[in-house]
Amino acid sequence: MYARQAGRGADFAPPGERDQVEPTRLHELSYELVLRCPGIGRTKLAKLLYLVDLEHFCLRGVTLTGAAYVRRQRGPMPVALYDVERDLDGWALRVTSEQVGPTHVEIKHWAIEGKLQPSFDAREREIIDLIASTYSPLPLKDLLRVVYDTEPMRSILAIERDSASSLVGKPIDLSSCWSSDESQRDEESAEIDETIASVHLGETVERESERLATISLAGGRAT
Fold first, then answer.
1. pTM of this prediction?
2. What separation in angstroms does the CA of 190 have from each of 59, 118, 123, 193?
3. Side-chain-facing half-sphere of 223: CA atoms under 13 Å
4. Taking a C-beta distance cutoff of 8 angstroms, is the pair 26, 78 a contact?
5. Looking at the predicted structure, is the pLDDT value of residue 185 above 50?
6. Residue 191 contacts by C-beta under 8 Å, 6 or more apart in sequence?
7. What are phi and psi of 190, to 5 degrees?
8. How many C-beta atoms surround the C-beta of residue 31 within 10 A?
9. 172 closest CA partner among 84, 68, 44, 83
10. Which of 87-96, 127-136, 175-184 has the lowest mean pLDDT?
11. How far apart are CA 127 and CA 105, in angstroms?
12. pLDDT per residue as tens digits for the range 124-157
């Protein structure tokens, strides 16, 4: 783990001079996705992580990474992603920042090959392959539509619409992905559930527009 010496905390150690961390599953999955998608931005990486974890949760009852997700202005974000960037920058990842507007800085990632050896089992790798091959080629705006049309995000949007309030910063409950009929969920099946790939392309934009209109009429602030 990071060395902590008197007068020098881990947070202040520059990239390349930090001790290497013991990688968590979130470190490994982030590295794997960046390896497959060189130059991927932070927002897109966060959404792919979310979709992998959601699919894994729906199939096996736990997320692949163990990460906690919160609702951000542009959708789900793993709380620990910033730590992963800091931990891996300089030895397993190259993390860059680019000013792309007056108020926006884009964070991009490149993997340094061979620095991590993620240990995914066959079913985990199937899920990663499914999500990466299906969604990494999408433009960010289309990926955001997919993410906002997953059941956990639909639930959040419904609450925001009904209460005319924002849940930005609040945790996301992934358990809403489960069917109410438990017999429809086969944790032992070797088949990958392609629900995300096949049905999560609904009219999210229309629902979001309705939510924003409701907030506007109530004098709230859109997020």
1. 0.73
2. 10, 21, 7, 9
3. 17
4. yes
5. no
6. none
7. -85, -5
8. 22
9. 68
10. 175-184
11. 31
12. 999 999 999 999 999 999 999 999 999 999 999 9
Rounded Cα–Cα distance for residues 168 and 52 (Å): 21
Please give the pLDDT value at position 19: 60
Give the number of other Cβ atoms within 10 Å of residue 145's Cβ. Answer: 19
pLDDT in tens, 103-117: 888 899 999 999 999
pLDDT grade, residue 208 (50/70/90)? very low
DSSP state of 13: S
For the record, the structure tokens of 49 come out as: 């992580």
Contact 94, 110 (CB under 8 A): yes
Helix 140-148 to helix 204-217 angle (10° resolution) is: 70
Closest CA to 69 of 60, 56, 59: 56
| Predicted pLDDT of residue 128 | 97
Of the candidates 214, 204, 104, the one whose C-alpha atom is nearest the C-alpha of residue 166 is 214
Structure tokens, 158:
């419904």
The residues spanned by each domain of the chain are: 10-217
CA 199 to chain centre: 19
* Token representation of residue 8: 């020098």
- Spatial distance between the Cα atoms of 202 and 123, rounded to a whole number of angstroms: 27
Q: What is the pLDDT averaged over residues 36-58? A: 97
Instruction: Give the number of other CB atoms < 10 A from CB of residue 221.
Output: 11
